[in-house]
Amino acid sequence: MTFAQQQPAELTPQDSRTMLQIGKSYLGTQYVANTLDRDGEEELVIRTDAVDCLTFVEYTLAQALGSSFTENLQKIRYRDGIIDGYPSRLHYTSDWIENGIRQGFLTDVTAENSVQTLQLSLSYMSAHPKLYKKLANSPENVTRMTEYEKALSGKIVHWLPKSELPENGLSWIMDGDIIAITTKLPGLDIAHVGIAQYIKGKLHLLHASSTLGKVVVSDKPLNHMLNNNKSWTGIRVVRMSH
């Protein structure tokens, strides 16, 4: 296990506002890609001083769930909480969401509120192994990733097209909900993740921005962000469960 700094203070779980409260404590934290990819065996890496869009959400969720931060993080990041090499890490956000629902700490809010569905078709990682340090020179890892992609592909999930998301959000999207942005990039499911935050009645996104290089709250409402990115198609919304 690798610790870059002292673990964050543990908090008692309350509701989704706890997610927002904790997430805002990361404002200004540096954006750094690939902090989890280390030489040697796969291990639980904790670097709350440098995050990407997903690790920011993971650390926030692990704190919000209370009890043991380290145990929570392992359950969040790895399939059924078991570390078994690089492919056991939940690289596809749809897999990450399904794992959280299966283990009881996430609820799929979109499934309860949107009739729109899409069929997963995942192949991006196995089709572009050179983009990933632990796939580039490991045919075994590529084979395992391909198996997970095939297992996920064909599954039906609920989503909300960006054309149906108004500037002021929707009554069923709450402060602190996890927002996963869907994409039309072939073989990929989710392009970006963040946390819902309403500002003056409009839905914004608290997220680790690669463009700005740090954790920020979007200056524009979320629907503007979606409309300004042609490859982004809509959102999935999940919520921390107690």
UniProtKB/TrEMBL annotation:
Superkingdom of source: Bacteria
Protein known as: DUF1460 domain-containing protein
